[in-house]
């Protein structure tokens, strides 16, 4: 063999070496395929944008092949690795630990069974009306052959939207050369599909139906047609999602389409420069009219001509007429409660901002409302509070909803989150413990619960806490340490009950009122009990 090779010319020897190298390379390639790469399919996936020339050579326009990607081994043995406890304690939500009585402790056994059934029915009605965007999520499989919008597609009811960003990313080269028909399917439940324009050599089946097919033998034409796909809503709903499914080559992609009316803003008359023109003060009268007069006088001293709205539900034996300049006075039916009074007062506000104060508080030179207005003007916060000049008064609190849908509670901590950039001394929080300024339109959406269970305790009870719990996830709340207000001693309705007489019945009335309020709030918020409180 060697002697024969020596007698060959250089060109002949080169040919023999080339043939042997080709055969050896083919054998090694086959061995590689059998050992490492699943070779059940003899096709190649061609990304959209690749160049396929007449000799069947394949390359990406402007790129060179530098590596081969292998499928990832999804071995289960990694699941047994030890977890980092410092990281794991932040995952999910920690269980609820009750502090005090549970809701069921307020009922007899038979009554509790009935109350549970009523509460479950009420919860189902609430959930049917609820739309929570975080509940809408999509998942994209690895090596997906399509690109699509996973979020942000919005259409007005009974209108249409162009599905931008839909395209095929790769196809099978064997199918391309065999002239196989490439098919993309769109399905939906609350609308139909059509196309803005027709591309040549593309077939549309099911046009203007909720199940449309796009078919062609040319991937380039397929992508051009996909750029023209239109979704049209046909089932009216003011605020809901339709989950459109797009299928191609056995893959399914979900495109969430938000069907929603356009929401209009609530704007107010242009401000005139004075703080008093930007806000209205709302206060409920507790029966201590000397305190109320001091509050109104202090407002007039530091912010002249500011409108004050007073809601008074005092009974006839306590009530006194109160008519002062710049004060709008509303007499309510007796004993309707602190929060019913706040609702009445806020309903009469015509300015962009509303300031909620108690009648035992009063303005000082440190009550810098301009700072609070500036923060609401220039940040995305809805409510900002101040603090009380009394030593030891807390600044704010944070809340956490713990547990699950069947056993949940609220945990409270006397702390704030972080200082707000650009506003030294102001911190993000979930609750403020004193007076506060809020966007009128936004605070109306949350509102105060006027239920009679909270009428007996007023601000001394948990009603104000329940307002801030109801505001979780709805209002962004901040509190500023340097903006303070003065406060008289006594005067609130809860303190009147506690000190109402010498035989202790006032304290018993307050305790009974707190029990009734506790029961109502647990039932209203679908909570099992109250969580831990830490200072």
UniProtKB/TrEMBL annotation:
Domain named Glycosyltransferase 2-like: residues: 280-434
Gene3D superfamilies membership: Spore Coat Polysaccharide Biosynthesis Protein SpsA, Chain A (3.90.550.10)
InterPro entries: Glyco_trans_2-like, Nucleotide-diphossugar_trans
Name of the molecule in the record: Beta-1,4 N-acetylgalactosaminyltransferase 2-like
Organism: Branchiostoma belcheri
